[in-house]
Design brief:
Number of helices: 10
Radius of gyration: 16 Å
Shape: globular
Helix content: over 70%
Largest sheet: none
Number of strands: 0
Oligomer: single chain
């Protein structure tokens, strides 16, 4: 029986292993970028108060997406960041929620045009898109909830890489673009109101 990604993630969460990015990469070798994006952006993708933790995860995501853009094969982070604990909010709330979401996607997902998702040029383009969506989440006004859709776009793009399904990639692009469009439109309304 093939163990699904959600099963492996659930198993990792229940294990005694330290919940760090370094440990996560050692468990999910070969899918390190996608797993890192999924984990890091799951915090701002949930409409939960994070006390600024989402900005830290967005900065790390920007660094990793820049590496992907420049063709890096495996993620590089400073040793201190790699060994930071993901934290209780991530371990007990965000990841279990996303594990259920991933399991739902796994039931309906199948490899569709997966060869396109593995090409270097595709991965570099995804790096650009992830940078844009992460910046959209980062620049959203605090406590507005406007960071949720762009962050969810990154999560879905990461999930499309893990499940090798271009349909999920399209859902991620739609979510991220809708979130940025919402931010811009509400920002312009606020600007005209204040003027």
């Amino acid at each position: 029986m093939t163990r699904t990604f959600s099963y492996k993630l659930r198993e990792w969460l229940a294990s005694e292993q330290p919940k760090t990015i370094a440990n996560l990469e050692s468990v999910f070798v070969g899918k390190s970028f996608a797993v890192a994006f999924l984990i890091l952006m799951s915090i701002p993708a949930l409409p939960l108060p994070t006390g600024g933790l989402s900005h830290l995860t967005e900065i790390i995501t920007l660094l990793l997406a820049t590496e992907l853009l420049f063709g890096q094969q495996t993620p590089w982070l400073p040793k201190r960041w790699r060994n930071l604990s993901l934290g209780k909010v991530m371990e007990k709330k965000a990841l279990p929620t996303f594990t259920r979401l991933i399991a739902w996607f796994e039931r309906f997902s199948k490899p569709r045009l997966h060869h396109l998702l593995k090409r270097r040029v595709s991965l570099r383009l995804m790096g650009v898109v992830i940078i844009l969506f992460t910046l959209g989440a980062f620049l959203a006004p605090p406590f507005s909830g406007l960071d949720t859709l762009p962050a969810l776009g990154v999560v879905l793009i990461a999930l499309s890489l893990l499940l090798e399904d271009i349909v999920i990639l399209l859902l991620g692009l739609a979510s991220g673009l809708a979130g940025i469009a919402l931010e811009i439109s509400l920002g312009s309304v606020l600007f005209h109101f204040l003027r």
